[in-house]
Amino acid sequence: MRLLTHNMLSCNIKGVANGFPLRLEAEKWVEKEVELNADFLRHIFPKIEWKALAGAARAVGYCELPEEADAAMLDSEDFLRRFHHALLEIHVEEGALVCPETGRGFPITKGIPNMLLHEDEV
Amino acid sequence: MVEFGTHQHMWGPRRVTKLLGGIPVLRFPGSFDRSYPARSFPRGDAGHPAASALPEPSCRPVSSDVPISEALLMKVSRTAQIGLVSCHPEVYEPCDDSFALVDALLADREHLIEHRPRLCMELGCGSGYVISSLAIMLGELGCGVNYFATDINPDAAQVTRETLEAHGLHAEVISTDIASGLQKRLAGMIDVVVVNPPYVPTPEEEVGCKGITASWAGGENGRTVIDRIFPVADELLSEKGWLYMVTLTANNPTQVCRMMKEKGYASRIIVQRSTEEESLHVIKFWRDGVIANSAEGSDSWLSQFPFKSFWRSSGTSA
């Protein structure tokens, strides 16, 4: 699971109002180099919740993202490189995503988050 | 003999089709034309509006003494290879419906490339054959496209990951019901959604069962899950987004198109395919008023059904 996906996932339990961002508890992660595509990064930037991305990156030991970011930063190659690395090159293999409201944990196994709910949560 | 990654050479001994309800069908590599005549594909007639755009069916039987044409090799490289598709007893293997969907995407490939999608998503990815094929055929767009794939069956999610890895591809795979947990944040962001839903008419209680049953059990008229998918796809699709969905005649695709029209979607049948078991349509939907591609213009969905017999079963239910 890339941090892109972490940024797009929220708790889906019925009645939960503040299910984003899920707290990332990473036990195992890997880094895989991917070609940087500035066009994709510029397109996705406005949709990214920056604080959630920076927080998730810190959870896997990557602290090179600024606390805040705005679109003007996309002109900086250095910023793009860090954004790209955090968003697309870090893969969480094992761990959990924890709902900030209920504390319910969603396991991440072999890189796949499991968002399936129990009957009483739907 | 040249080992060649076409579907028909790589069949495992056990196959399951949705309509047979998971009853294993014995197939023998290279001999399915005899053992299973339903897999020769009538291509519709020349009057089919999309007929000229259709590629050769990707699962056409090829015997080893037929010279491998360059065109066929090109096409093989544009889809996932059956030999690299991972499997699991509880995961639906690529079958006629999967091939119909991939052929529809192939038929529309040029348009897809021009479309320049940034995010693509498969809902119900099963073995991963379709999302892998899509990623391969959009390969020239490189890292400008990212993929998501979901399945309610955790075994399928795992198998999809393995299939992607075997092809050297990546998609973000999530175990979830349709797009639960993703659809809020991904709303309006997905440029291409592909779905091969559980479309087989079954008793309602089979819908959403654990394991492989979830891949075919479609409830009344096979529409229970399909009707849940449409609002999700509508939410996920970007303004220029396209949805490709497999349907069965029993699902009443004319009524499906009419229902989507009311939601503001135009539609077009990209592939129509009949086997002895089932008559499949792969339908493409896009928001009306947004030009889907230059060839399509504003064709009425009504004019796209070439077969009168098709209408008899579709009725006029609203």
Automatic annotation (TrEMBL), chain A:
One of its GO terms (biological process) is rRNA (guanine-N7)-methylation. It comes from the Eukaryota. InterPro entries: Trm112 (IPR039127), Trm112-like (IPR005651). GO terms for molecular function: protein heterodimerization activity. CDD domains: Trm112-like. Transmembrane segments: none annotated. Interacts with TRM9. Belongs to the TRM112 family. This is Trm112p-like protein. It comes from Musa balbisiana (Banana).
From TrEMBL, chain B:
This is Methyltransferase small domain-containing protein. Signal peptide: none annotated. Keywords: Methyltransferase, Nucleus, S-adenosyl-L-methionine, Transferase. NCBIfam families: hemK_rel_arch (TIGR00537). Residues 111-200 form the Methyltransferase small domain. It is found in: Nucleus. The keyword Cell cycle does not apply. The lineage of its organism: Eukaryota, Viridiplantae, Streptophyta, Embryophyta, Tracheophyta. It comes from Musa balbisiana (Banana).
